Amino acid sequence: MKAVSELLKKHDGTLWHVTPAMTVFEAVEQLARLEVGALLVMDGDRLAGVFSERDYTRKITLLGRNSRETLVSEIMTANVITVNATTRTRECMSLMSARKIRHLPVVEGERVLGMISIRDIMDDIISDHEHTIASLESYIQS
After folding, report:
1. Which CATH architecture group holds 4-141?
2. What is the pTM for the complete model shown?
3. pLDDT tens digits, one per residue of 43-60
């Protein structure tokens, strides 16, 4: 399994994010436009939280709140679980499963490097398994 830094290379250094002062409606528009399930919430260069579809459904829709009047800061997940660039994907998978989360911001000290998703982890696992199978098939045929 790879280090998280390898997975981040596929993201080209892009930090898709919203700000705490944006409305939830604006943040949901951003999710839809980017076709992602979560965004970093950045206050300048500082990670303030994560905003996800789950936050929207549980804290806006189910509570009958108005997304055009509610700010991201009011419903975002502020106590964010993070990993660093050297964290291995297997450890990320275990962490995501245990904490029932689908996205992990990657940080080095105070600097945000990006965010990985459960899809990134699954793609890595599949790739790793395909490589193992190909190696075994090559060994058997030799």
Report:
1. Roll (3.10)
2. 0.87
3. 999 999 999 999 999 999
